[in-house]
Every structure is written in structure tokens, then in C-alpha cells.
């Protein structure tokens, strides 16, 4: 079924103002959702309009940011309305005779210019269909509208709030959804943890991401995908940097706090894999900005974009209030004495850290 006639020329112009950033690592437990949440909030605090997209069927980002009882029916699902990512894509994936429309965004309480596109556990049901469409869209016309639909619906949705940035929280897998979201983004960030499996995952990504881009280039040359209702966007996502998170620090000999020796070993291992395998693979696949861009932004390729130590007890308070750690106040912390002073000082330190990280991202992308 071909529905080209349903596409409106006004739905999407020749250029898109916002930048879509994919937060991706197929290793779980590396704080992808935490990174999207904190950096998205900080970018909004710095005056940008930001949309956070929950594309992980676990819906952790949605649960973290939006206030609803998990015992009640899911409030972001209603017949006849697109209130979540799955329902926004349904017209393309289910071959309905209606065009894609923007998903209704949810504003984040306490932070102007920050919005959430809720997730849905049923998004995982589209995985196998998308994988088939990636392979057979040139021979089965009923599938040709599917591959380009993800970026298309995100562009439509972002335009409703004139977004500057769209941050996509992705699941820990190498499935078709992540392949599509990665290949159709403008940029990407790799969150990781200082451990053996993150180093292993980085080597794996050194092989996987170039393969995904080779596939994307072939997709962009297929007339069927260019002539579909939702044309393949022909993006080449660029590497912004890596975030390493969840480690302990210690001050030695009066020096500034640094990762403990046990964690420093894995910092060194990750940096070695980056230098030996990851960065060369990205360079060969044209997934890097010019070296001068990183230098000007203060985000050297040989370093991490952001190093985020353990939040300790602040993370539980943050999650209960749906606020980032760096925005917690003394009233939020509800402790007293030296404990409260230490926690407030820690929150202020995270504020400085994420502010620096967000400014690096803006300088790289703008």
C-alpha cells in the first residue's frame, strides 16, 4: 500500500532546525536514561527548547519524568490520539490510510522548555516488522513507508514546540529500532561505565556502527525509499563524545578528587579502546566532526565528554522528586547539619559538571 498522496508538503520543510542526538550503548546499566534526563534538563536551563524521547520499551525515562501512578491505567494512551511513540508510528507500521501526525508532548514540571515524548512497552512489537522493512522495502511496496517514519514523526513532533534539541533514550540492544534511530540522528553520545563489559561493548560498537552506516547509505540510494511517503533522511550522525558514569572518587595527597585506583584501571582501558579501535572506526565511516570542532569545544577526542561520579544518596531523592541531582535544594534533601551541607555541596558540584557538559554539546553542534 503506497500512501504518498497523504504526505503534506507543509509537514516537513527542506531543512530541520533542531538537532537529534541519540544516546546509545547496547550494554545495559550505563546510565543512558540518567544522561538524557540530566543533560536535557540542563540544556533547557541554558535556554534551549528540548524534547526527550523515550524509545526504550522499558519506559524508564517516562516513569522518571512524568507524574502518574503505576497502579492506574497508562495515561499516555488513548484511542484516536497519538500520546506515545508507538501510537505516533502506528499509521506507518499498520498501513493506515492516514498520514503521520505529531505526538502530543508532555511538559516537564519545574523546567520550562523541556518536554517528554512518552514511551510505550508496545514499541517493541514493531521491532521485527521494522527489521523486515529494512531488508525488503524495495521489493514490497507495503513496507516502503516504514524505514523513514521514525525520524519523520520525531521531526513533526519537535516542530510543534520549535525544539532546538531532540534527545533520544534508546534501549540496550542491536535491534532494528536502534539501528534506525541511530542512522537517522544528527549526532550521538555513548554513555558507559568504567568496567570490563563497557570496554568490550566499545569494541563491539567499533564494528557495528560502521555496518549500520553502510546499510544507511545503501538505503539512501534506493528509489523506493526516496519516493515513499516518509523518505529516508540520508543522515550521517556525528560523534559528540562519551560519558563515563557511576564510579567512586578519592582525594589523595591534597590533590583534587579522582577515580579510585580500581576504577582508574577501567578509565585507562576505555580510553585505550577508544584510541585503538573506536575513534579510527568512526573516522573511517565519516562519523566524526572535524578535529578542530572538538578542540574548540574543549571536548578533545582523546578524553571523555563528561565524567560523572557516583550520585550516592542524592539519586534516590532525585528520582522521587523527578528532578535532576544538580537541581536539588536543601529543602529537597531534608537533612540537617554536616550531612545536609555535604549533600548540598555535592549537588552544586554536579550542577557545574553538567553545565560544562551541556555547553560542550552546544559548541560542538552549533
SSE blueprint and pairings:
Elements: E1 19-23, H1 32-45, E2 50-55, H2 60-65, H3 85-93, E3 106-107, E4 114-117, H4 127-136, H5 149-159, E5 165-170, H6 176-183, E6 187-192, H7 196-220, H8 223-226, E7 238-245, E8 249-250, E9 258-259, H9 261-284, H10 291-297, E10 306-308, H11 314-321, H12 330-333, H13 337-365
Helix pairs in contact: 1-13, 7-9, 10-13
Which structural category fits the helices and strands?
alpha/beta
Number of helices: 13
| Unreliably modeled segments | 1-14
Report the major sheet: 8 strands, mixed
Mean of all residue-level pLDDT scores: 91
Instruction: Classify the helix fraction into a percent range.
Output: 40-55%
General shape: globular
Tell me the total number of β-strands: 10
Strand content: 5-15%
**Strand and helix order:** EHEHHEEHHEHEHHEEEHHEHHH
**Cα end-to-end separation:** 40 Å
Radius of gyration equals 21 Å
